[in-house]
Amino acid sequence: MRNAIGIDIGGTNIKIILVQESGDIITNITELTPDGHGGSSEKIKDMLVKALKNILNDNVIGIGFGVAGIIDRKNGIVVESPNIPSINGFRIKETFEKEFSLPVIVENDANTYAYAEKWVGTGKNIDNFIVLTLGTGLGGGIIYKGELFEGAAEIGHMVVEPEGRFCTCGSFGCLESYASGRAVVDRVISSLEKGAKSILKDYSDGNFYKITPEEVYKAALEGDSLSREVFREVGKYLGVGTANLVNIFSPEAIIIGGGLIGAWGLFIE
Question: Span 125-269: which CATH code?
Answer without folding.
Answer: 3.30.420.40
